Amino acid sequence: MTYETEARLKSYLDTNQLSRERLCLALLKLDKRFSNVRPRHPHGGRDGGWDIDAVFDNSQKVAGAIGFMIGANDAPDQKRDIAKKFKADAKSARFAKGDDNPPEFFIFFTNIDLTVTEERDLIDFAKSRGFAACDIYDRERMRLALDDIDGLAARIQYLNITLSEAEQASFFSRWGDDIQSVISTGFQRLERTLKRVLFLQEADDVLGNISIHYELDREYEPEEIGHFRAFCSFQLAEPKHKIFGILFGRSDDADRYREERHRPKELGIHAGMCGPQWEHMLDLEAHEAAGREQDDEKWEFRGASSSVGAKKVNKIVAFYSHDHGFFRFQPRLRLYDLNDAWFIHFLNASLAEKLAKIHVFANGYKLASYGKAGFQIDQTPFEMEVPNRFSQEELADPWVRIRGARSSSHSLHFSEWTPARFYEPFDISSLGEEGQINQ
């Protein structure tokens, strides 16, 4: 693999500054003389003349710089350019403005092959500028490190060079027991990490819907439930597309929130259900343009669904539909916009007493789940902010709030836990000739 490694170092990472820096970072970490190896600005920006920070021999501050040539061929003009960059980076690192503790050790990585004399001249230059020590990783030295057993992983990752049979044998002879230990003891951790990566990727998708499953303590007859109200209010951590909050819920009477009735009014969960939803709009731009206090907050009605009644009741589901996915004429919320949101539930008192668990779902993920130990019923009187469509007889069973067990509300923090995906997508290979899923 000697020739292939050298060839890849010459040009494989052309224009890929990020991978160059990560490759050099990995090589420096393999050098046992150095510790606390870390990048400075791998995505660009002012770096003070060097790319890598480290500590040499647990005492000396290290500045690491990188100078790669595109299509390196060791021509005289390329060597002059590398020498020029070496000197510029060394001076910048040693005399960085505002640095009261300048680095004492300078290390330089280049994909140009340098002679012993050329290296010595550059090292002497660095020392003449005040560095106590200097070291250079030229192309041949990097190749040796990458073709060593310890460097094979970095070689695969950054140069995409597979292992030969002999290298595989050496690699597993050296690391086989450690790999087996990682597999046997860390598989669950790996699985958790992969699930988190998948969630963070899919959390960037448009928010399709949210559903709250209010699980009851047993199965009830419809007559035992009668009139019911189950609503949930989400408050976002910051306004997104002028949406600051959402309110949605479920109640009896399928036509309760329709302008015109399609059937005679009949109360009770057996007769039908409705699902209204609102969005709390906050126009900060209008407020700033006005330059004065004004009412820039309002709840906007976003329609209501209707459904048939229930013959048996063991749970009630409140549903918010944000995006239907057919045509999109305006920006929409993403699933990740629910991060750090807080939410509270509003139920009629008799229904709240029957509540056993609360489950929160969105876009195919379970975001949260609470048993009785995770919530409390707040019976303090209050008024709902949305238009009232309930009679005084219905409100005789008063509103109550379901709060967190030790807080005024529940909240979502994706940095603290990873939501659980509750279904797996099918592969195309699982579909039969007629488009049916082969079980």
From TrEMBL:
It comes from the Bacteria. This is Uncharacterized protein. It comes from Agrobacterium rosae.
